[in-house]
Amino acid sequence: MKKHLQVVGAMLVNKEGRILSTLRPLGKKLGNYWEFPGGKVEPGETKEEAVVREILEELDCHIEVEKEVGENTLDYGDVIITLTVFQCRMKDEVTVKEHDAFVWIKPENLLSLVWAPVDIPILEKIVEEKKGE
């Protein structure tokens, strides 16, 4: 039976309206792909609790979850991943600790990066919604 991982990501938006994108380390699975910062939901944790914990661990940043922006499930062959992305408000600045790079990018340019495949349908939804604003 395949392992099924529940993963969360944070859509963090700065004062200029740019969205934080982080680059997975080369040595990790899906290394050198861009992603929303976040990680696995631990047993006994809600998705919202997980995203708050993960962002504190990865970015040394306290956040407040505002709303869910999308969810997608993808079978990677060896594992099935369900990603839930939340729009979150930053309470302080981010310090990238676990990624190889990061960029604050305009919503209309999000799809110019090479993203982890599970993120792409959520990104397409975000880009489409931002066009209508």
Account of the 3D structure:
The mean pLDDT is 93. This protein has a single domain (3-132), classed as Alpha-Beta Complex (Nucleoside Triphosphate Pyrophosphohydrolase). Helix content is 19%, strand content 38%. It is an alpha+beta fold and 133 residues long. The protein has helices at 47-59, 120-131; strands spanning 3-12, 19-23, 34-35, 38-40, 63-75, 79-90, 101-105. It is globular. The strands form 2 sheets. Strands 4-1-6-5 form a 4-stranded mixed sheet, with helices on both faces. A 3-stranded antiparallel sheet has the order 3-2-7, with no helix packed on it.
Outline:
This protein has 133 residues and is an alpha+beta fold.
Topology:
Layout: E1 3-12, E2 19-23, E3 34-35, E4 38-40, H1 47-59, E5 63-75, E6 79-90, E7 101-105, H2 120-131
Report the sheet with the most strands, covering strand number, pairing sense and barrel closure.
4 strands, mixed
Mean pLDDT: 93
Largest sheet, spatial ordering of strands: 4-1-6-5
Percent of residues in beta strands: 35-45%
Structural class: alpha+beta
CATH class: Alpha Beta
**What gyration radius follows from the Cα positions, in whole Å?**
14 Å
CATH architecture: Alpha-Beta Complex
Distance from first to last alpha carbon:
43 Å
The CATH topology annotation reads as Nucleoside Triphosphate Pyrophosphohydrolase
What is the global morphology? globular
Number of strands: 7
- Strand-and-helix sequence, N→C? EEEEHEEEH
For CATH, the homologous superfamily is named as Nucleoside Triphosphate Pyrophosphohydrolase
| Tally of alpha and pi helices | 2
Low-pLDDT segments:
none
How helical, in percent, are the residues? 10-25%
